[in-house]
Amino acid sequence: MGDRRRGRELALQILFQIDLGKDEKPLTLEDCRKDFLENQDENPEIKDFAYQLAKGTLENLEKIDALIKERLKNWDFSRIASVDRNIIRSAVYELVFRDEIPVAVTINEAIEIAKDYSGKESSKFVNGILDKIKKDKDIIKHDNGGK
Predict the structure, then answer these.
(1) Is residue 147 predicted with pLDDT exceeding 60?
(2) 105 Cβ neighbours under 8 A, 6+ residues apart
(3) Which helix (H) or strand (E) holds 145?
(4) For the packed helices 82-97 and 44-59, what is the interaxial angle rounded to 10 degrees?
(5) Which CATH fold topology does 3-143 show?
(6) Do 44 and 81 contact (CB within 8 A), yes or no?
(7) Residue among 119, 67, 71 nearest 95 (CA)
(8) What is the C-alpha to C-alpha distance for residues 15 and 37, in angstroms, rounded to an integer?
(9) Alpha-carbon distance 19 to 65, whole Å?
(10) What is the reported pTM?
């Protein structure tokens, strides 16, 4: 497994923890960094990549969720399993806000992570949403002021 893949998995775990605890005992990104990420036996570059993905996703969460919701057909956003929702969220962050990461890499990594952490059907769902985001990427970038 590559370093970036491991970073994406750690970012997913952070986002999942925050998403799961939002109603009971809200966790912050810094809580997760201190209590989870710093305790991982990974090199600093992997941890930094994971932190940057989680941070960017959380900082843009409202916009990311809106982009996802706009592309759901016959499906309610709240019904998406938390793990799938957070795989999609972090991948959308990469697609829209991280131009240095190739689109195909982001989508393929998200699909593989969905297979590992969720299931075969989930990977198809993740692929479908991300493919719609990819097709609309230029429009989305324009709406973000080119960012």
Answers:
(1) no
(2) 4
(3) none
(4) 90
(5) N-utilizing Substance Protein B Homolog; Chain A (1.10.940)
(6) no
(7) 67
(8) 12
(9) 13
(10) 0.90
